[in-house]
Design a protein that fits this description.
21% of the residues lie in helices and 33% in strands. With 73 residues, the chain is an alpha+beta fold.
Length: 73
């Protein structure tokens, strides 16, 4: 027997959030990255510094969090 069971997915604060930025101005030539950072300001500061050093002004930002799925019963 099969039945539909509703679930919810939510951010888990204790899992933390990781921020990372990648230079996207010329991805085939510049492969620099901020590396994983525990806070958003560190990744943004890296972008600002990278722009100052290289003139590159386009970045891909990635935010990773942890989530838990729970049954709604």
């Amino acid at each position: 027997m099969l039945r539909f069971v509703s679930h919810t997915i939510r951010h888990v604060p204790e899992g933390g959030v990781i921020y990372e930025a990648f230079c996207a101005t010329n991805p085939s030539k510049c492969e620099e990255t901020s590396g994983p950072q525990d806070n958003q300001d560190a990744a943004q500061d890296w972008c600002l510094g990278h722009t100052g050093r290289t003139g590159h002004d386009l970045f891909r930002r990635v935010v990773t969090d942890h989530a838990r799925v729970t049954r709604n019963e």
